[in-house]
Amino acid sequence: MNASTVQAINDGTILLRFYLGNITDTTYSSVNSGLTTMNNIGVNYEFNGFTEDHHAWNAWQQNLIDWAPRLFQHVDSVSVTPATSTVTLGWVKQFTADVATTHGASEAVKWSVEGAASAGTTISADGLLSVAADETASSLTVVATSVFDPTKAGSAQVTLAAPGTTEVKLQATAAPASVVSGGTFTLNVAVAPADGSKKTASVPTGEIAVTFGDTVQVVPLTGGKAAVSLPTTGLPPGVYTVNVAYSGDPPYAPYAANYQELEVR
Prior knowledge:
With 265 residues, the chain is mostly beta strands. It has helices at residues 3-12, 28-41, 56-67, and strands spanning 17-21, 46-51, 74-81, 84-88, 92-94, 96-102, 109-114, 122-123, 128-130, 139-146, 153-161, 168-175, 178-179, 184-193, 207-212, 215-220, 225-231, 238-246, 255-264.
């Protein structure tokens, strides 16, 4: 079976799920052999596992109870938020998928990005778009495709913009200076023209990315400012560096630096 045939099977099948009894099941060997073949050629399927019941009727009944409700499960629609956005080259953007389902169908989606010219422009499994600094495309399409029903998908349009060259200064101050593990810091960030010409220059727009511990938060600027909550739940006691990056916008250049070291007690 060639790759195009396998792809056609996967694209045209909403649910392929197998059930099997224990080793006394007369189909045990043939079904196992079939599953191995599908693994080797790349056919997507679900396997419910072995039903360990020596009575064929009981095994059949258990599997039917699992299978019957799935016949009525379906995905109604998939939408992506934000539906439209502008992203600076070299920056990131988080997207989320809203999946409307019936009778408990899976809400999982597979993310993809279309229209990219650079191999460095990618999207993660959780919808984080990373635009390469050398991307030459003017726009991208972000797509979320239902895993349960690949015929259902939603998309978002992304306009790409080159950052400017005017330098900025970035101030970030966290309070309090230390908290007990489980507490929350508040980081106040302000981005302004580096030369201090506030009266004549435009206010920087775009976003900041704050890295603290193992988490990254991307937050839009409002009036050149942003306040970011930094929870410490799960962090062991220690000193943690806060990194703040600015996306840049058409007038202003990107910027990144390490700021305060915050203590978790």
